[in-house]
Design goal:
This protein has helices at 17-29, 41-50, 71-95, 143-151, 174-184, 229-241, 257-262, and strands at residues 5-9, 34-38, 57-60, 65-67, 100-104, 111-115, 119-123, 126-130, 136-141, 155-159, 162-164, 169-170, 189-194, 212-213, 246-251, 267-269. By secondary structure, the chain is an alpha/beta fold.
């Protein structure tokens, strides 16, 4: 039995979804055990705007930007991630011959962590404490449930939200959730596909792609991460520290995005 491959794909519209599905189907049919985690921030933002509850983003005291998740935002998030996008991935995989099962991290407490009772942020240089916040960080992964599905021949397709330790739905970062998942499975590879070729020294100049990073020095490269890439680098650092063999930042826009990443494309951390 091959070690489990964990794939995290972004939700941006630049992602070549059909190409990702084709690559997954080929590997699956070759006997590769896999779990797919997907995002969907771009579509969520559009739906939130249309529903009159536009997205808000806040910057933590440590300098990381995240979505402000009040209860209404959480409900929109669940509608898009767990409904529209999760079933889109499942449908495409099913038509490609992969018996996929779509679940959120809330189902069976696949992803579990503590809900933050308050969020400390900076707004225009001022420190604020936000309450009515429904976010957290994944601390546990229910591998028993996922192995039941994998052993029975199903491909789990996962998405946030996660479950709090009290059973509440909480918004969690998908890249860091995938990192915890990869660590829990002792995965050989965590492949993170997004709408850029990998980590760049001078974003957005794609010619400045960093092809490889020693695992022991991944935090030294945080300075090159811009925007969402900061959470990806943070997740990569957590994954390799927990024993994941390799983390790849791959280009999800390509005709063979996953195959290209596994064959040396993108940024490899190992």
């Amino acid at each position: 039995m091959s070690r489990t491959l964990v794939i995290k794909t972004g939700g941006g519209k630049a992602i070549n979804v059909d190409a990702v599905v084709a690559d997954v189907a080929q590997l699956w049919n070759d006997g590769q055990r896999m779990v797919l985690v997907h995002g969907g921030a771009e579509t969520t933002n559009e739906v939130a705007e249309a529903l009159g509850h536009p997205p808000q983003f806040v910057t933590s005291e440590s300098g990381y930007e995240s979505r402000r998740t009040d209860r209404k935002t959480l409900e929109i998030f669940e509608m898009v991630y767990c409904g529209q996008l999760n079933k889109m991935w499942v449908e495409k995989l099913q038509t490609a011959g992969v018996n996929a099962v779509g679940l959120s991290g809330l189902d069976g407490r696949i992803f579990e962590g503590r809900r933050k009772d308050k969020l400390r942020v900076r707004v225009n240089g001022k420190r604020l404490v936000l309450r009515d916040d429904w976010t957290g960080t994944v601390e546990k992964v229910n591998t028993d449930l996922l192995n039941l599905l994998l052993d029975a021949g199903y491909l789990p397709v996962l998405t946030p939200p996660a479950s709090s330790d009290k059973g509440e739905a909480i918004n969690v970062d998908g890249d860091r959730a995938a990192a915890m998942l990869a660590a829990a499975f002792d995965a050989e590879v965590l492949a993170i596909l997004s709408n850029v070729p990998g980590l760049m020294r001078e974003f957005p100049d794609e010619s400045t792609l960093i092809p490889s990073i020693p695992a022991a020095k991944v935090n030294d490269f945080m300075e090159f991460a811009q925007g969402r890439m900061k959470k990806k680098v943070m997740g990569a650092a957590e994954a390799v520290e927990a024993g994941v063999g390799k983390v790849i930042f791959g280009d999800g826009r390509l005709e063979t995005p996953l195959q290209s990443a596994l064959n040396g494309g993108g940024t490899h951390i190992e």
